[in-house]
Amino acid sequence: MLYALVDCDNCYVSCERVFNPGLEGKAVVVLSNNDGCVVARSPEAKALGIPEGLPFFQLAERFPGQEIHALSSNYTLYGDMSRRVMSILRDAAPDIYVYSIDEAFLMLDESPYMPVDYKAWGEALAAKVRRWTGMPVSIGIARTKTLAKVASKFAKRYPGYRKCCFIQTDEQREKALSLFPVADVWGIGRRHAARLMAAGVKTALDFTRLPAASVQKSMTITGLRTWMELHARDCIALDHLPRKQTICTSRSFPRMIATPEALAVPVASFAARCAQKLRQQKSMAQTVTVFMSTNPFREELDQFSVGRTISLPAPAQSDSEIIRAAHEAMADCLKAARRRLSLDYAELQNEPQTMGLRPADHQWKRAGVIVGGILPETELQTSFLDIPPVLKQKLQRLSAVADRINARLGDESIQVAAALRTADPATGKALTFRNSILHDRRSPFYTTDIRDIIGVE
DNA sequence: TCTGGGGTCCTAGGACCC
DNA sequence: TCTGGGGTCCTAGGACCC
What we know:
The chain is an alpha+beta fold. It has helices at 11-19, 43-48, 56-62, 75-92, 118-133, 145-157, 170-178, 190-198, 204-208, 212-230, 260-280, 319-350, 389-409, and strands at 2-8, 27-31, 38-41, 68-72, 96-100, 103-108, 137-142, 164-166, 247-257, 283-294, 305-316, 364-372, 375-376, 420-423, 430-432.
């Protein structure tokens, strides 16, 4: 068995360039939600030394006079481009595992009777993806997934590989690992890398020469698996988990929020989105967690973060059941926050100079909803603790109808009123939490909205 | 003024039971 | 004065990924 890792080069930037060739050869960055910080960079932007995660507002300060194109993220576009790339990969190999929006593992058979020149096969596949979608990809092929990752980095870095690197022999493996920084190995993160470097373990090859027992001791079984994979022993399983075990929707707010009424809107929106994801993967949840935190960058303000979990009376997947539980959990969170504040208040009363001062409410910067205890959707089980079965079925059907309308007319064409804000004073249009998120620099929905289709003049 | 989001896995340690 | 032991379950926190 061989693994081919197909990795899109600078995925988000490449998506933008397909439809805006003027960005070719320029320093381009794509920003997170609310245009918060840099999440993707073109090679030119990397060459300028722009770090990943740099707050957008520091970009102009840190790189004055540079021509840098900064774009809001357009996940609709990236998701659609990803789907196109993956469908080509699915034609190339029957067994494929989509690992993330920009990566997939292809499982390749090796037959002694019909040997395949996988190096040439990979080069042709990369060229085909590029020609059909405009997306540049790099392909690494090896006996384990960790080694395939290493190979793909070589394919990306050196044009001589023509977008495909095959680590075939032991000799090639050792050579590659001796040139590969230990910090870049899949599964070795910042913490472990720093410790290894300090101990003089600099390359992936150095790492493979450590005794297995000491690797397990300091990096648990997870680290040992990585060690074995680098020794060409296939041991990291990609669990084909069709259903996620938890589903989370969370966002930072463009401005901080202090009142429960204002917080209830995004929380309902997150809950509805979680419910929608549940229905998409044909699951039901047994618990709903809400968490929220203040702005850690505003050190002068009172800091607090809190999360509370509600157990549902029976598994649920409808918008209204999940939202109701989320609001209950949110109320618990706020109660805990208030308790904290009144403790602080009591302490303040003991200090003569602050006596009589009332601590201000927390200013929330970020919140989220997690649904857990996920079970496959089955026949509705009746439980005497649950809402009446007739009502439950009605709520299910209501959500299903909403899903169909949104599938046909676009997301958020119809939604639960609790996730709505007041009308936008300028346009009179209902303003949802989601379209209150800032994305001033977003490209058009070239591939998914007929109004945004590219024109030729 | 402005600082991302969504997951998984592993382990230590506490709660609880007998 | 002396203050069990072993098992299981759960959770929080840390580490990692993209």
